């Protein structure tokens, strides 16, 4: 107990010391400020200091107020009641974030400026006193805080976190500055400045003269720590030109295009319009650009350059592209198409076209089949079909530009080197003439500029077998008078003075060509050469009443006044070597027939008919034909035509005249027939008499033979009797005599019959003739055959008309067989059994 008592006694005796110690401990406790590792301490000086200057809100040094400086992590001693410490956590900027600072104290931002000027030494705004002492300005700061932890006085600096600006692939960033110097008058976009690291260093941008407003530079894909208060970034897609496309560019800024020009002059170094600054600095002009963008991806400022996509120009097979330039030098007076210039690579290089003197308007060069990247703002493309000449056709060409044709010339003089009119420039350079051309296009496909040449399709000239082509030339030199006389004198029947058919000329001269074209196909320009096809085979011309003939039958008047209709054929032929002279004389075969032969034949037969009666003209037909042919041959020789023949096919007399003539002839024929019939009956009577005599001849002969036979038999019997009386040896001799006698008798019989028959035939021949005997014999044979039924007189089916029997077969047989009873034979045949 004594110890506690002693303690209290001691305390009582030393309480003043204890109070002093406690006060010291409390003072020490309040003077110590412990700041954690992730903290800062804001200091406020409350007493015993100088006053802050007017307008200041943050104290420096010994000034009373909230201090600009802060206390970092650690143990700090502050005088109690003078300073008050308030703890705060570190400012942390995460990845993909930025810190935007606005100062609440400092000097004023100069008039016209929006953002405070950058001052050094403040250690990313962590040293507020250095910021203020070094002239830091009050307001939004240009500098930003990158990712990290910062000991920033939140009372002095207001911090706002923002996101990193991310530009993805195939995107660009379009920047507009809200601070900087003014853009010069007349310019739309701010001039590019160096050192700002894609707008991440706002201080460098401002210090280097960055201008306020839309920026000409863009931000490529990536992550950027850009102050969004200073720079407004708008994302846009990159310009993508696909395959088969082109990009047409129009600039919204730059110098003015010179007067008279429509498209801007090409400048170098802008990397396909991706560097707007280089475009402007190198003198790029405002307006439509000559250059185009080929397929690819481009980071082009869309506000500076307007890019319009267009299809690439595709010229298909069998087509040509006609080009019209919208800019360039003027076409010279009198010319239709612009002069060709080199180096523009089929109009794909507009810059080379304009620099090399390309002219404005329709171009003489064309685009062949293929794909072209052509600036369609500079060049207007029209697609037309190529000139196609099919088989058995030709192309007749007319030039729409060139030097004028000489006077009296209808077809232009030929020139070489234009590749079948596909090189219009070469045509003009070699002084090709405007108008119809002499050279033709043969079958094929030709890529010809329709603005320069028009092509008309025509048929080839075909000369068949049996034909020649007489060529009339519209080109060449005129024949001289000497030549005309020589040509005339060389022709049949022409004197040297006459100069007959003087327009038949040698090759190369204007006129009818002396040399003809034989059978074949010819690529002939009908504007320069006219081909008259002349048949060299026989040509027949008819005058008759058929529908398909050219002329009606001829009607002529005879000497005795009767109209006669004559059908005529005329056969002519043109010799190949005489064809040009025939054409020179009458023009064509049709003209020859229509205007020469037809009038000539008509006149010839009229003249001949007028010198003879109608019947004589008919009866002397061959003589009339010969006279007409002779006259036609002489007349046609004058026209260089050979007359092969003139044929009278038919002569028609008037019907009344023909009836009278027919009746007269019939009467004469009947009279003659009666005389012949009378003579025939007389001869028939005589013949019947001779026939009766002849019929009795066999009986007479038989009687004579019978007498002889009896006599012989008598002798035989006597011989036999004598033989019986004699020996058997004499029988053989007697038999021999008998047989001999029989043979002699038969021979005598046959001789007698033959002699009688011969006499009968001789008498018949003398009476009626040899031919009549033959007919009688035939009739006898027919009669015998009918009697035996071997010839069928009546058919199984008999159809008769309204006439009598004399009109049919029975009548004919009755006249042929006058002595045969045909009716009895018919009845007999009908009674025979049918097999």
TrEMBL record:
Main location as per UniProt: membrane
One GO cellular component, as annotated: membrane
Annotated Band domain residues: 514-681
Locations listed in the record: Membrane
Entry's transmembrane regions: 15-36
Membrane topology: Single-pass membrane protein
Start and end residues of each stretch annotated as Disordered: 481-500
Keywords: Membrane, Transmembrane, Transmembrane helix
Classification via PANTHER family: STOMATIN-LIKE PROTEIN 2, MITOCHONDRIAL
Protein name: SPFH domain-containing protein
């Amino acid at each position: 107990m004594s110890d506690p008592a002693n303690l209290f006694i001691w305390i009582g005796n030393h309480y003043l010391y204890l109070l002093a110690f406690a006060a010291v401990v409390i003072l020490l406790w309040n003077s110590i400020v412990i700041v954690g590792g992730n903290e800062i301490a804001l200091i406020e000086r409350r007493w015993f200091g100088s006053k802050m200057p007017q307008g200041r809100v943050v104290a420096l040094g010994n000034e009373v107020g909230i201090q600009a400086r802060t206390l970092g992590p650690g143990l700090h001693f502050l005088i109690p009641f003078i300073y008050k410490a308030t703890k705060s956590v570190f400012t942390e900027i995460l990845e993909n974030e930025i810190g935007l600072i606005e100062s609440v104290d400092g000097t004023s931002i100069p008039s016209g400026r929006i953002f405070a000027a950058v001052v050094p030494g403040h250690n990313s705004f962590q040293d507020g006193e250095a910021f203020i002492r070094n002239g830091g300005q009050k307001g939004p700061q240009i500098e930003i805080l990158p990712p990290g932890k910062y000991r920033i006085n939140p009372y002095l600096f207001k911090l706002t976190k923002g996101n990193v600006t991310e530009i993805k692939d195939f995107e660009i960033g379009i920047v507009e500055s809200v601070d900087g110097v003014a853009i010069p008058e007349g310019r739309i976009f701010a001039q590019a400045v160096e050192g700002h690291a894609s707008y991440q260093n706002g201080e460098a941008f401002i210090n280097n003269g960055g201008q306020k407003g839309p920026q000409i530079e863009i931000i490529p894909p990536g992550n950027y720590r850009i102050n969004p208060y200073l720079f407004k970034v708008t994302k846009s897609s990159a310009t993508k030109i696909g395959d088969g496309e082109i990009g047409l560019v129009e600039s919204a800024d730059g110098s003015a295009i010179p007067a008279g020009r429509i498209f801007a002059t090409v400048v170098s170094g802008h990397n396909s319009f991706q560097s707007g600054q280089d475009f402007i600095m190198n003198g790029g002009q405002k307006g439509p650009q000559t250059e185009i963008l080929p397929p690819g991806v481009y980071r082009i400022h869309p506000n500076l350059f307007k890019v319009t996509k267009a299809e690439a120009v595709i010229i298909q097979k069998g087509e040509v592209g006609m080009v019209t330039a919208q800019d360039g030098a003027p076409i010279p007076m009198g010319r239709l198409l612009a002069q060709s210039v080199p180096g523009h690579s089929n109009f794909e290089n507009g810059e080379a076209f304009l620099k090399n003197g390309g002219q404005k308007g329709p171009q003489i060069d064309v685009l062949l089949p293929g794909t072209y990247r052509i600036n369609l703002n500079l060049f207007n493309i029209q697609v037309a079909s190529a000139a196609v000449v099919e088989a058995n056709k030709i192309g007749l060409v007319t030039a729409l530009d060139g030097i004028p044709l000489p006077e009296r010339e209808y077809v232009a003089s030929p020139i070489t080197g234009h590749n079948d009119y596909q090189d219009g420039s070469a045509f003009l350079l070699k002084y090709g003439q405007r108008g119809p051309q002499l050279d033709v296009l043969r079958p094929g496909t030709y890529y010809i500029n329709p603005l320069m040449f028009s092509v008309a399709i025509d048929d080839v000239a075909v000369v068949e077998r049996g034909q020649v082509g007489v060529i009339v030339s519209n080109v060449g030199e005129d024949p001289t008078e000497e030549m005309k006389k020589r040509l005339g004198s060389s022709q049949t029947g022409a004197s040297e003075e006459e100069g007959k058919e003087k327009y038949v000329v040698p090759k190369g001269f204007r006129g009818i060509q002396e040399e003809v074209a034989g059978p074949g196909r010819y690529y002939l320009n009908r504007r320069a050469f006219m081909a008259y096809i002349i048949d060299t085979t026989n040509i027949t011309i008819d005058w008759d009443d058929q529908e398909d003939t050219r002329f009606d039958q001829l009607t002529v008047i005879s000497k005795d006044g009767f109209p006669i209709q004559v059908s005529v054929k005329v056969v002519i032929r043109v010799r190949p070597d005489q064809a040009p002279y025939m054409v020179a004389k009458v023009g064509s075969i049709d003209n020859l027939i229509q205007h020469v032969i037809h009038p000539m034949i008509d006149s010839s037969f009229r003249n001949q008919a007028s010198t003879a009666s109608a019947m004589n003209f008919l009866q002397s037909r061959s003589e009339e034909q010969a006279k007409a042919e002779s006259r036609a041959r002489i007349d046609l020789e004058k026209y260089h035509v050979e007359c092969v023949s003139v044929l009278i096919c038919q002569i028609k007399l008037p019907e009344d005249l023909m009836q009278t003539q027919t009746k007269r002839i019939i009467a004469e024929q009947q009279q003659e027939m009666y005389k012949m019939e009378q003579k025939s009956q007389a001869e028939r009577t005589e013949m019947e008499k001779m026939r009766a005599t002849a019929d009795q001849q066999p009986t007479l002969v038989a009687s004579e033979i019978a007498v002889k036979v009896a006599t012989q038999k008598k002798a035989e019997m006597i011989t036999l009797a004598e033989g019986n009386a004699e020996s058997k040896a004499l029988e053989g001799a007697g038999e021999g005599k008998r047989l001999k006698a029989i043979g002699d008798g038969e021979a005598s019989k046959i001789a007698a019959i033959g002699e009688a028959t011969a006499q009968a035939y001789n008498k018949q021949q003398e009476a009626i003739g040899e031919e009549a005997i033959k007919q009688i014999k035939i009739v006898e044979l027919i009669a015998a055959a009918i009697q035996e039924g071997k010839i069928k007189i009546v058919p199984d089916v008999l159809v008769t008309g309204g006439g009598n029997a004399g009109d049919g077969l029975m009548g004919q047989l009755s006249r042929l067989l006058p002595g045969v009873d045909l009716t009895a034979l018919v009845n007999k045949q009908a009674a025979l059994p049918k097999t």
